Amino acid sequence: MKNIFFLLFISAVQPALAQTKLEKAITSLENNYEQEKVYILTDKSQYAAGDQIWFKSFVFDGYNRSVLSTTLFVELYDVDKKLIDWKTVLLTNGEGSGDFKLKEDLPEQIYFVRAYTPYMTNFNEDFQIVKTIPVYNPSSTKTLEIVKSTDWFAKAFPEGRTFINGVPTKFAVRLSSNTSLPENWSGKVIDTQNPNLPVTTFTSFDKNVASFTITPASGKKYQAIIQDNAGKKQTIDLPEVVNNGVSLQVSSSKDGIKYSLKGINLKQQLQNYKIVGTINNHLAYRANINQLINEASSLIPTKISNGANGILQLAIFDEQDNLVAQRLCFIKPNNLKIEKADIISKNLKITPRSFNSIDLSPESYFKNYTVLVSENDGNNTPEEENLLSGLWLTGDFTSKIDSPAQYFSNNANSEALDALLISENWNRFDWNSVLNGSVPSIKNNSQKFLSYRVKPLKNNAMLKDTNVTLALKLGKNEPTVNLFKTDQNGYVYLDNLSFDEPLSVSLFVNAEKDKESSTDNLFVTVEPLVLPTPFKGNFPTTKYRLVTAAANRKLAPTISRAINTQKNIKKTENVDVQIEEVKLIGKKKDPKEELDKQLSTGMFSSINSTIFDFVNEDQHVGGSNNIFDWLQGRAAGLTFQRDNSGVNVPYIRGSQAKLYLDEVQTDPSMIASLPVTNIAMVKIIKGAGLIGDAVLIYTMKGNMKSKSNESEKATQNNNLAIVKGYDKPSEFPIEMIDNDSPAKIENDTRETLYWNPNLFDSDYVPPRIKFFNNDSAKQYKMLIISFDEDDNLLYDQEILK
Length: 801
Hints:
There is one protein chain. The protein contains 8 helices and 49 strands. By secondary structure, the chain is mostly beta strands. A hairpin with a 3-residue loop joins strand 43 (679-688) and strand 44. It is globular. The strands form 13 sheets. Strands 1-22-21-24-25 form a 5-stranded mixed beta sheet. A 5-stranded mixed beta sheet has the order 3-10-9-6-7.
């Protein structure tokens, strides 16, 4: 949505000779308060330990995808704020994706996904997204249950924040709770001098809000009495009735937002009062009153937002530029500007394990899609939050809102949304602070991609104002040689890098006169400059609590299915491994077998193993920081997860593997620090004998030498540093479980059937969604999200049969 400055003057205005306090504040707002927000879409709302969490992130600047940031940090925490895992996500046009692999022994509890850009750390941490993720584990001694609590409290908010004698005033009543809210509640307003005769009554629109209108009288004291469906009551005081001020009334329609002002007992009536409307911290509307009048009204047209939806903040200022009334309202709540997907063909079947496809139009303005397809089990429980509520509501408010997605559903109640906004403040900035000249301190400017500071050393001394050569090698690519000059502090900077493979940085310097060039006394370190920020706040309260698990606990169907799906994956992986082993048995003895016999002893010998030979085979290890980095993706069933120190820890079929160095059990940090050129052999054993699942590292013996090519010999020197860039997203498997598969999968229970955070429009074929059915799905839930070049939104959520 582009910013449009629509200025309306109720009467003629004399040109100002200098900027007023308000004008300076508006200028400051435009220049200093650009802010981002994040929405995280996950493939499911709850998980079992051992599952994969697939996520797609959307970063917005206002209601447009952000171009401020290219890097997003996504972190996974437990309830004790222990960091479980984290990802550095590349953002392209404000979008990025990734995944977390949950450990099988992860305790059952609530986990939290935190997401933020480095630029967002300049502002209140409360605006960073923290998403609640329940994770279940039938092996845990504690289990999650939903709290049925009556612990709630209520507040009442007058429209415009004023309550004036004789002026009809609309109130919003808002309930809040640290756990869950009552399904239904109602109330009445009383005059404390005559409590037995209600002034008015009200009934909740939803769990969050209700509204009523009252005309107060001076000297009266009013109270609201709220009662929920369980019988709990609370009495709250309404604000004190005042005898002067400005009343602000607002209503939204398809034509725009109509506001009415009424001045009560003002010295100069409404003369020289100003009305300012902002959208996402940008000026969108302004009007000045220059007549001696007590009432004024106008219709703000929808063109202030280019016809798009969003929240308008109206603020009223007196002749001295003091804030006297304010109000939030939603632009076109009954006419959401959302496109639907143009589906040109569907081939959907309900038979188990059948192939399904959905083709989107290649003629659409939308070219890149996020698509999620899941089984629809017939449970029509409405979703609690989605992209729409994240974009238009919760991304800009820090208070807890129950099921915010309801305000943008097909049967949404616009009165409920309006009452909710009466109860909220726009906390992205505070008018009084801006009027007083306060500006946010920008410590972390938005940087393009990733940057690093290189520190070259020779004989342990900094090389200041010196020409140095850096050889940069990305993954298995050929190195590139670059000439740099260190600055006066002895540093070289590598700026604006975008990569997702290990980057090796090798240092070289010219030889001194009459001496041979050597790298023996060179040392280089590389320090990342785009860094995550520790979380200082508190996680949001949830509706869950941990209780002692019953001996015969019954799992929710979705969790039972998830656990069964994990078992199916392991069966498939076992078959793949067995096939490879059968192939190996039929071969003649080779140098690898001889090396295994030479290094392995007794219980560490197993036919059920995968061996990597570094003595007889060139394994191209030069671009790897350590052996764990090199092993990723090279053996079926072997995965890695980072521990708190950042070291990758191996897992086999979801369980942490034992580690042995020369057949002595050790820890991951010891292996991670071992130079890869010292390694002779790596053996991966899966479920064999007394060893179980294990990764065995064997070092060079006697005259053994690593068979590395010449370009990788630099890894043996201290003049090399390995740099990690963005985390590469895993590829979502398109499962095809054949009835004749040797895996003999008896029951395919996958819930997520298709996940693609980046479905492109091709020049040759239409964008195609293709997936295989599980054994039970009769209908499917499909979600498609896309943005065109002008950031118009496509959001299509359907049940397909």
